[in-house]
Amino acid sequence: MDGRSRDVVLNAVMNDLLTERLALHPFTTAEAEQVATATPGPDSNWAPGYPAEGEQSGARMFLRACEAVGDPHPFGGYEIRLRSDGRAIGGIGFHGGPDEDGAVEIGYGLAESFRGQGYAAEAVRRMVEFAREQGVTTFLGNTTHDNVPSQHVMLAAGLQFARQDEELRYYELALKQ
């Protein structure tokens, strides 16, 4: 195993939320700045098409949270990386810590070439599990009416359709303690 591969494995073991195929890596401020501006650093290992506008927006949201409250983790932004080689293929994150009712909302996105392979549902399922471990009572997500793939992701991750308005479809999952 070369030095970079060993570092990827060690980082995943020490900090990341792991799934079978993915490492959900909590953003550092420097990483979020790179993603927000789509400017890779010398150690960046980005898949083609990453970061898309959604991931850039999520990184900017993370940076605003850092300015307002300091590091928002564990309820901050994460980079979705392949465990096999550490490549960043997308982003996932909370829109803040639990509200007064103990609910959190999630957002996510993948580079186009990695969509349709179950990665998003795998990442969302891990975030559901993590939220449950943190004592969250309700897990929320939403998407536009025409984003059928995202609707399928949320259903595959265990969320249920709750309601809709003119712009969005809302999904939720009660997390039993």
From TrEMBL:
CDD domains listed in its UniProt record: NAT_SF (cd04301)
Gene3D superfamilies tied to this protein: 3.40.630.30
Domain N-acetyltransferase per the UniProt entry, residue ranges: 33-176
GO MF annotation list: protein N-terminal-serine acetyltransferase activity; protein-N-terminal-alanine acetyltransferase activity
Pfam families: Acetyltransf_3
Keywords attached to this entry: Transferase
Record keyword Metal-binding present: no
InterPro entries: Acyl_CoA_acyltransferase, GNAT_dom, Ribosomal_N-acetyltransferase
An annotated GO cellular component: cytoplasm
Full protein name: RimJ/RimL family protein N-acetyltransferase
Organism: Kitasatospora atroaurantiaca
